[in-house]
Design goal:
Helix 6 packs antiparallel against helix 7. The strands form three sheets. The protein has an eight-stranded mixed sheet, sandwiched between helices. A five-stranded mixed sheet has the order 13-12-14-15-16, with helices on both faces. The protein contains 19 helices and 16 strands. It is 45% helix and 16% strand. Bound molecules: histidyl-adenosine monophosphate. The site of histidyl-adenosine monophosphate (HAM) has 24 residues, from strand 6, strand 10, strand 11 and helix 15.
Length: 533
C-alpha cells in the first residue's frame, strides 16, 4: 500500500506542476509586447508621420480593427494568400443565442427555435440561413410524419438519414456575421469613404492611418502575426462622363507625390539603405492579355518549375514572377515583360510617373517583376526596401487601385496609397544605431525627513508641470543610496532636499554626468534645466 500512496503523491506533484505551468501566460506566437524605452522610438516615428503627412495635407483616419470578412475577401481577393490562408476570422454570435452546434440533440426543438430567431432577425437573414431554415423546417415536418406510423426497415434508414441531415444543417447555421481582424487597412478606408459619403468632400480625400494588422504568417524576424502599419490613401471620385484616360498626367503626378511623401518621411527619420522599386501592372484592358500570354509561356516550361509556381500557372500566373526559388530565376528572366505589353494609356501613365519622380528628385529602379500580393492594384505599383532587415526587407508597399471603391459599392473612384511595415521600419532604424538611448529621467528628487517630503512633493509637481521627467522616491532614502538609484535610472540631475536645504531655500543640485554639486534656488534650477536640454 505504501507503493500506491507514493504513486498518488507523484501523480499529484506532476499535476500541480502542470497546473503551475498552465498559469504562465505568454504572448501568443507571432505577437509581442512593445516596451519602453523602445516605445519611445515608436512614438517618435508615428509623430514624424503625423508631421510629414500633415505637410502634404493628409488627415488621420482610425478605422475599426475588425470588419466583415466579405469586405477583405472582395477587396484583397479571395484567392490571395492573405484572404485564403492568413485571416483571423470568427462568427460574431450574440451570447444569448442557444448553441445549436452543441445542443443539436433535441433537434426538433432546435429547428423551431432557429426558425423563430431567423424570423425575428436575431440570426442573419441572408446567405446560407436563407436556404437552410426552410429546408430544415421541411425535413422536420417529414421526420414527424414518418414517425407516426409503423416503421419498415426502409423507413428506419430514411429517418436516420433525415436526422443526420437536420443535425448537420443546424451545425451549419450562421449565428452571427462573419468578421475578420483586419489584415490591411486599404479596404477599411475605402469602406469608410463610401459610408461617410466622402465623395461629396473636396476631392481628392487624403487620409493616413497607423495601427495593428493581423495575418497568420509564419513568424520570423520582421514578420509577425500582429504587426503595425503606417499607411496613407488618396481617393478621388471620377466625375460622371469623365473619360478616365484624359487624366493620365494628373494621376501620374498624384502617384509621384504619394511616393515622394513616403520617401521624405524615410529621409526625415534617417532610414538607411532605402531603395525604391516601381512598376506598372497595366489595367483591366491590357493586363488580362498579358496574363494569358504569361500563362502560355509558363505552360511551355511547366516541368522545370517548382510545385508552387506550377500551381500558380492556373491560379495567378503573375505571382510566379514573385518567386525567390534559385532554380526558377533564369526561366523567369526569359519570360515576356509587362512593360512591352501595356496598352497606350498605361504606357503613357507609367512614363509620366517616371518623369514626375525625376522632377521631384526621387531616385527609383524599375522592377518588372514587382506584382504585389493583393488583387486590387492596377498600373503603378511600388515597394521600398531598407537595410538591416534580412529576407523580410520590404519596408513599404503600395500602388494605384482605381475601381476598388466601386467594387465595394461606391461611386467610380480613383485610389493610390501605401503601407509601411512599422515593425520593420523600427528594426532598420535600430540596426543603424538610430534607436535612441534609454532616456531616463531629467531629475531625481532625493529627500530625508518629513518636512523634506512635503518640499520634495511640491518640487516634483512644479518640475513635472514644466514638462520635465521627475522621479520622486515614495520613501526616504539615505542620500548615498538615493544618488546610486538616480544614476541607475539615467537621471541627469539629482536634487537633494534635507533640513538644511529647507531652511535656506537653497537646493543642493548634483549633475550626475560629472559629479559636480552646487547650491541654487528653485528658479535658478529651472533655468539650468531649460538651458541643459
Ligand atoms: P502589403 O505589401 O501587404 O500592402 O503590406 C505593406 C507592408 O506591411 C509590407 O511591405 C511590410 O513592410 C508590412 N508587413 C506585411 N506583412 C507583415 C508581417 N506579417 N509582419 C510585419 N510586417 C508586415 C498592404 O497592406 C497594402 N494595404 C498597402 C497599400 C495601401 N496599397 C495601397 N494602399
Amino acid at each position: 500500500m505504501i507503493g500506491a500512496s507514493w504513486k498518488t503523491e507523484r501523480a499529484d506533484a506532476a499535476f500541480q506542476r502542470l497546473m503551475a505551468e498552465k498559469k504562465k501566460f505568454q504572448a501568443i506566437k507571432g505577437t509581442r509586447d512593445l516596451l519602453p524605452p523602445e516605445t519611445e522610438l515608436w512614438n517618435r516615428v508615428e509623430q514624424m508621420a503625423r508631421e510629414v503627412f500633415g505637410t502634404f495635407g493628409f488627415g488621420e483616419i482610425r478605422p475599426p480593427i475588425f470588419e466583415p470578412t466579405e469586405l477583405f475577401a472582395r477587396a484583397v481577393g479571395g484567392e490571395t494568400d492573405i484572404v485564403a490562408k492568413e485571416m483571423y476570422s470568427f462568427e460574431d454570435r450574440p451570447g444569448e443565442l442557444p448553441d445549436f452546434k452543441r445542443e443539436s440533440y433535441d433537434f426538433v426543438k432546435a429547428v423551431a427555435e432557429a426558425t423563430q430567431l431567423y424570423e425575428s432577425a436575431q440570426i442573419p437573414q441572408a446567405g446560407l440561413n436563407k436556404v437552410l431554415i426552410p429546408l430544415l423546417a421541411l425535413k422536420v415536418e417529414k421526420y414527424s410524419s414518418k414517425y407516426s406510423g409503423p416503421l419498415t426497415a426502409e423507413d428506419a434508414a430514411g429517418i436516420r438519414k433525415l436526422v443526420f441531415d437536420i443535425i448537420s444543417g443546424l451545425n451549419h447555421l450562421e449565428l452571427g456575421p462573419h468578421l475578420s481582424l483586419r489584415p490591411e487597412a486599404t479596404a477599411s478606408v475605402c469602406r469608410a469613404y463610401i459610408e461617410h459619403g466622402m465623395h461629396a468632400l473636396p476631392q481628392p480625400v487624403k487620409l493616413w492611418y497607423t495601427g495593428p494588422m493581423f495575418r497568420r504568417e509564419r513568424p520570423q524576424k520582421g514578420r509577425y502575426r500582429q504587426f503595425y502599419q503606417i499607411g496613407a490613401e488618396v481617393l478621388e471620385m471620377v466625375p460622371p462622363n469623365q473619360d478616365p484616360a484624359k487624366n493620365i498626367g494628373k494621376d501620374a503626378a498624384v502617384d509621384a507625390e504619394v511616393i515622394e511623401m513616403v520617401m521624405a518621411f524615410f529621409a526625415r527619420l534617417g532610414l538607411e539603405g532605402v531603395k525604391l522599386e516601381i512598376n506598372s501592372i497595366g489595367d483591366r484592358d491590357c493586363r488580362p492579355k498579358y496574363v494569358e500570354l504569361l500563362r502560355v509561356e509558363l505552360l511551355k516550361v511547366k516541368e522545370k518549375l517548382g510545385p508552387d509556381s506550377q500551381r500558380r500557372i492556373e491560379t495567378n500566373p503573375l505571382r510566379v514572377l514573385d518567386s525567390k526559388l534559385e532554380s526558377e530565376q533564369a526561366i523567369i528572366a526569359g519570360l515576356p515583360k509587362i512593360a512591352d505589353h501595356l496598352c497606350a494609356n498605361c504606357a503613357a501613365q507609367y512614363a509620366e510617373v517616371k518623369r514626375q519622380l525625376g522632377m521631384r528628385g526621387v531616385a527609383y529602379a524599375e522592377n518588372w517583376r514587382l506584382v504585389r500580393g493583393l488583387d486590387y492594384y492596377m498600373r503603378t505599383t511600388f515597394e521600398i526596401t531598407a537595410q538591416g532587415l534580412g529576407s523580410q526587407n520590404a519596408v513599404c508597399g503600395g500602388g494605384r487601385y482605381d475601381g476598388l471603391v466601386e467594387l465595394l459599392g461606391g461611386p467610380p473612384t480613383k485610389g493610390i496609397g501605401f503601407a509601411i511595415g512599422e515593425d520593420r521600419l523600427i528594426l532598420s532604424l535600430q540596426e543603424a544605431g538610430k534607436g535612441g538611448a534609454a532616456t531616463g529621467r531629467d531629475v531625481f528628487v532625493a529627500w530625508m525627513g518629513e518636512k523634506a517630503q512635503a518640499a520634495a512633493i511640491s518640487a516634483a509637481q512644479k518640475l513635472r508641470a514644466a514638462g520635465f521627467r521627475v522621479e520622486l522616491p515614495p520613501v526616504e532614502q539615505k542620500f548615498g543610496k538615493a544618488l546610486g538609484q538616480a544614476d541607475k535610472l539615467g537621471a541627469r540631475f539629482a536634487v537633494i532636499l534635507g533640513d538644511d536645504e529647507i531652511a535656506t531655500e537653497q537646493w543642493t543640485v548634483k549633475t550626475l554626468a560629472d559629479g559636480s554639486q552646487a547650491k541654487m534656488s528653485e528658479a535658478e534650477f529651472l533655468e539650468l534645466l531649460r538651458k541643459s536640454l
